[in-house]
Structures are given as structure tokens and as C-alpha cells.
Amino acid sequence: MGLFQKKFTCANCKKESSHRHKPKSEWQVEGPLCGDCYVNQMKKFYESSLRQQCVICGMEKDVPDMWEPRYQWDMKGLLCKTCFDKKDAEHKSLKTFCGICGKKLGVFRYNPKKKWIIDGQLCRECWDTQKAKLG
Prior knowledge:
The protein has helices spanning 35-49, 81-96, 124-134, and strands spanning 8-9, 16-17, 51-53, 60-62. By secondary structure, it is mostly helical. The N and C termini lie far apart (89 Å).
């Protein structure tokens, strides 16, 4: 009857069982697990993957409530709604107003040179003055 069934001890609870479950490598558990411990480890790992921290403020929320940053922002991770709105408003103001004088930009916008170290875009007058000053 018990020819092929060997008993083993669970690596987590040290209980004897006949059916072994192989733990996932990211759980960092050495040795086989019994059914109960396997399910508990799976629940812990799954629940921890459902909550993440906001990249800016560090508030921990559920992943479905988090927002993915826009590709123009060059950010990795997720943002909460308030941080996303702040970052979006900041990005829109950089696109619609001059980075130096604050004048509303029209159709023509000028990108500053990298060596000028200016955030946002420039109007023509500010771009000309920066070009005359810094080259």
C-alpha cells in the first residue's frame, strides 16, 4: 500500500505529510512544504504584490488605485492620484509657459540647449538672449 508514498517533514511547520509542494524561489524557503504552508506562503506573496508605494510620496496603496506615469516624465514605478495630478500639472505648465520669463507660449516653442540647464521650453526672446549670453 505505502510502497511509493514517503513521508516528509514540512520546512515551515515541521509537520509530517505525504504530499510535498515545491516552494517558489522568490519565497526564499528551503525544502518542501505541506499543503497548508504552501497556500499560506502563496497568499502572503500575492497580497504583497497587490500593494505598492508611490514613487514620490511613499504612500502605500493597492495597485489598482495607482497610476502609471506618462512616458515623457522618465519615471519608473507607480504614483498615487494626488502625486500624478501634481506631476501632470507641473508638466503642462512647463509645456505652456516659458521657462525663464513665464510668458504663455504660442505655436512656436524653442527647446533650450542641454548646456543651458533650463527646464521647460522657451519663448523666442528668451531663447535669443540665452543664445547671446551662453552661445
